[in-house]
């Protein structure tokens, strides 16, 4: 890239980083081209986008977007870095990455890609936290579990009240037959 192209690229990336609901940095070393294309396709299905960025340009865009410079250290920005940007659901692309890493193994026998760091809805997440988030069920499943928990107590109350009415009807029926 020429210097002017780099400046435009960093400006565009800065805007994307500011608008994103989550930003995840992964190490994709060992990921062949076909699996990489498959990962991009899966991410696009859930509103995510994978961008391979030079570490220096990512550092500049992160600083311009207001990311904490302590998070974008030389240790994190080393090796091959890909940027996963989520615009819709902040967790869905993380879950896709977790499932993908279990399915695809590099030639060295390691799961690829590997989480580095991430920012999910403004909160910094390390690689361990991202791995735990990737194991969560989907948003719809969590909402269903929450709704089931809320409705469970109401169904229990209705069942208890109906049981007493049924006992009363049984007692009255038995008394009327005598």
SSE layout and pairing:
Elements: H1 3-19, E1 22-27, H2 33-45, E2 48-52, H3 55-65, E3 81-86, H4 92-103, E4 114-120, E5 123-126, H5 127-134, H6 139-177
Helix pairs in contact: 1-3, 4-5
Considering the chains and any ligands shown, give keywords for the structure.
alpha+beta; Alpha-Beta Plaits; five-stranded antiparallel sheet; 56% helix; elongated
Alpha-carbon Rg, integer: 25 Å
Average pLDDT level:
85
Helix content: 55-70%
For the record, the CATH architecture of the largest domain stands as: 2-Layer Sandwich
CATH superfamily of the largest domain: Ribosomal protein L10, N-terminal RNA-binding domain
Main beta sheet: 5 strands, antiparallel
Q: What structural category do the secondary elements indicate?
A: alpha+beta
Please write the string of helix (H) and strand (E) elements. Answer: HEHEHEHEEHH
What spatial form do the alpha-carbon principal axes imply?
A: elongated
Strand content: 15-25%
- Regarding quaternary structure, what we see is single chain
